[in-house]
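During the no-cost extension, the postdoctoral fellow (Dr. R.K.) reprocessed legacy sequence entries with the updated structure-token encoder. One reprocessed record is reproduced below for audit purposes.
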Amino acid sequence: MDWLQAAKERQDELIQDLQELVQINSVLDENTITTEVPFGDGPLKALEWLLTKGQAEGLQTKNIDNYAGHIQMGEGEDLLGILCHVDVVPVGDETNWTYPPFSGTVADGKLFARGAIDDKGPTIAAWMAMKLVKDAGIELNKRVRMIIGTDEETGFRCVDHYFKHEEMPTIGFAPDADFPLINAEKGIAELVFSQNRTGDASKEQLLLFNAGKRPNMVPDFAKATVQFVSPQFEQNFHTFLSKNQLEGSLLIEGSHYIITIKGKAAHAMEPEKGVNAAVYLTAFLQQELTTEASKQFVDFTADVFYQDHYGNKLDLQFEDEMSGKTTLNPGIITYDVAKGGSMVISMRYSVTYPFDEKITEAQRLAVAKGFSLDIQDDSKPHYVSEDDALIQTLADIYRRQTGDYETPLLSTGGGTYARVMKKGVAFGMLFPGEPDVAHRADEFVVIENLIKATAIYAEAIVKLAGNK
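Re-encoded structure tokens follow.
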């Protein structure tokens, strides 16, 4: 079966399906959450859209309490899982987008939208692959189940709930990362640093500071309100912006200065690819502020995170051969003079990371700087040996379909649903050499690659679940 040709013949349908799905704003919506709608209207609408597609194809579908659902085909005792998600991260500053983020605009061979590559594009590729296999009439000796989550970007609560009620796949893959495949995923911990000192609004210089919406995104905008600053403050700010090639603004309201900096969003697994507006703003304020609580907050943030993504100042740095360097992303940074400062950090730590030892030392160093450190969440690393039959099969399919026999198997700082499976890996669909635009403005998927991935997933289904 020529799966690539079969996928090419369905290109128009593939694009239309993806456009319909990306036009659903499926960001976690706190305003519409209820006991029946756990993550808000948007994620549920996206889930229901895909389940309806499954029903229209005559396949088995199930909605698990509006947390997650599945579409299933095939027969057999064993279960092949394809784990996808239809929720997306916020769009950030919409003025940074060339096309409306929920339009699904096609231009220059690409489809632009929030979720185009993370993870709606790969989800539609996998869904089309299931349809191609079904329409080809290929007999399956395993059940093939697409499991659809709605809370991947904010904590995996969807699949945690799903697997309390449904069986674990025998084997599986998550089309939510890179080709050839990822057999090592770093651990993901959310660290919360809390300032132990508060201030007096009549004396402190820094009154408010806000940046970031999610720990897993590099903040692309930061804002601070200050007072009692030097006469050179405005000039110094513009000099700082110019020196660092940044955009920002300064507004005077009475005796207060309101200053902002624009950065560049990126995925927390690769913080070095973004420009963290919060860190840069604290680096500027570090030069200007002298009152105790204000200075303690900006000193800590700038000293620990400015031009360092690896946590050296808190002895959190570590790397290993199988997964690379541990990274830290200050995703949400806030300060209120009456409450003190707080930072929520997404730490992506290496597979062999000595977690307890490192965190204990970081807590000691943080206290010395006036901050406490708590672990808000911790998802342990995930690793499947290169020698495993699942790894060998998927790698062979990718290499045969693409002719790429050079790119090695990969590790990632991203967290995919592969880590919730007993035996699962992340399998595409970003191809080698492609820019990773997940969580960034102007996120896109290359249509030619969407088609190639569909062919790869179709062959994977047949090889893993078809009669030998």
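The chain has eleven helices and 24 strands. The mean pLDDT is 96. The remaining legacy entries will be reprocessed before the final report is submitted.
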